[in-house]
Specification:
Radius of gyration: 26 Å
Strand content: 5-15%
Helix content: 40-55%
Number of strands: 5
Strand order of the largest sheet: 3-2-1-4-5
Distance between the termini: 23 Å
Largest sheet: 5 strands, mixed
Low-confidence stretches: 283-290
Structural class: alpha/beta
């Protein structure tokens, strides 16, 4: 490093200097655009929060914001803070959020959505984080995480089965995990059964898409597993696994669960998407989400002015009363507009990019932007989170960075 400089050759950078560079130089530079939009221009944003324990067993609270980036013409997620909150009571979690927002200069006045997991301490009716958030921002819309709910629904239903393919998956993995001899012996049975040699997949019950992939692997490797355990019933654990593999009811339920989980996995994959897809919940929810389908240009013919005005009234902190008449006129204009002429190939554009391009369309007669208030409302709806997946991704990134060898970061 720096071979052309004697001074630079003596350069050293340990944890203290690296932390200072990250916190005082890189982070402010990377976050400048985010805070300019949210703090200075008062653009609407949603707050996303979740908790998880790191490698040092410290309980961290990840705080992210979801906002519309005018420069990129799309909905973007920005990192705010990840304070330690070991006492995970609602009051302490909210105080961490409030402190981080004050440090970054963010205000509740333009916060329109709040997303978290569905536990009582976060979104309970009384004495929760959400109840404290609504005390600061009464008009905020709480978006529970559909991915969490669907996963809990699937797991609870699976527990009602008379036998548990999920437990079989876990037992098979841990039987082979620590033994290279057993794994090598399994390869011989895979070859004998003319099955591809694959590592035994680990099923993690807390991961949303883990069960479907695990069951797919189990069913593909079933002949090899059955042959192996029939030949290696030398201890109680292997005998128990062999007995379950030989039970036709177990395979029947494994096939059933494999087919059923595909429906749940498909739903979860939709709402783990980084692009806005909240309007796709239209057929399965009520009230606000029923109306949000209007953000899709495909539903242009179904847009009703009273529907738009009702949505605007839900967010009086952003959609001001003195702009309602202008919004009403823009809706009437939008319904009768030839969208293809204004935004070419709009049907193939992501919905957030479509509204970004439409917001730049000007009136031929006046030269002013045609759909200022309408696009403002649509962008507000688009920043409502699909789920809490972005926070889960943040924790995954932390686990890759903060390991046993770098536990003091």
């Amino acid at each position: 490093m720096f071979p052309d400089s004697e001074i630079a050759k003596n350069y050293a950078c340990s944890s203290t200097k690296t932390a200072a560079m990250m916190n005082l130089a890189l982070e402010p530079e990377c976050s400048e655009d985010v805070y300019k939009l949210l703090r200075t221009e008062k653009r609407p944003y949603s707050l996303m929060v979740d908790e998880s324990s790191d490698i040092m067993c410290e309980k961290e609270c990840a705080i992210l914001v979801r906002y519309y980036s005018e420069t990129q013409d799309k909905v973007t997620v920005g990192f705010v803070d990840m304070p330690v909150c070991n006492d995970a009571k609602a009051e302490n979690i909210f105080n961490c959020i409030e402190s981080s927002m004050q440090d970054k200069g963010l205000e509740w006045s333009n916060c329109v959505g709040f997303s978290s997991d569905n536990c009582n301490v976060m979104i309970g009716k009384n004495n929760s984080v959400l109840s404290r958030v609504k005390a600061q921002a009464p008009h905020i819309y709480s978006v529970g995480c559909p991915s969490h709910l669907v996963n809990i629904c699937a797991k609870t239903a699976a527990k009602e089965l008379s036998v548990s393919p999920e437990e079989l998956l876990i037992d098979i993995y841990y039987y082979f995990e620590k033994s290279s001899k057993r794994r090598e012996e399994l390869k011989q049975f895979q070859d004998f059964c003319n099955i591809a040699q694959q590592r035994v997949q680990k099923h993690c019950p807390t991961r949303w898409l883990s069960l479907g992939k695990g069951l797919d692997h189990l069913l593909n490797q079933w002949p090899a597993f059955s042959s192996y355990f029939e030949s290696h019933s030398d201890n109680q654990k292997s005998k128990d696994i062999q007995k379950r593999l030989a039970d036709p009811t177990m395979k029947l339920y494994a096939c059933f669960l494999h087919n059923v989980t595909q429906c749940f996995d498909k739903f979860n994959l939709i709402f783990q998407n980084k692009t806005p897809v909240l309007y796709k919940l239209n057929d399965s929810v009520e009230e606000l989400l029923h109306d949000i389908a209007i953000v899709s240009p495909e539903n242009q013919d179904d847009v009703a002015p009273q529907q738009i005005m009702a949505l605007a009234e839900r967010f009086p902190n952003v959609m001001k009363a003195d702009a309602r008449e202008k919004l009403h006129l823009e809706v009437l204009d939008y319904v009768s507009t030839n969208l293809e002429a204004m935004v070419p190939n709009y049907r193939n554009l992501p919905v957030d990019e479509f509204w970004g391009k439409l917001s730049k369309v000007r009136s031929v007669s006046s030269g002013q932007f045609k759909f200022v208030e309408l696009c403002k409302l649509m962008k507000l709806l688009l920043v409502l989170p699909n789920s809490n997946c972005d926070v889960e991704r943040a924790f995954s990134m932390v686990r890759h960075i903060k390991t046993e060898f770098r536990s003091q970061m």
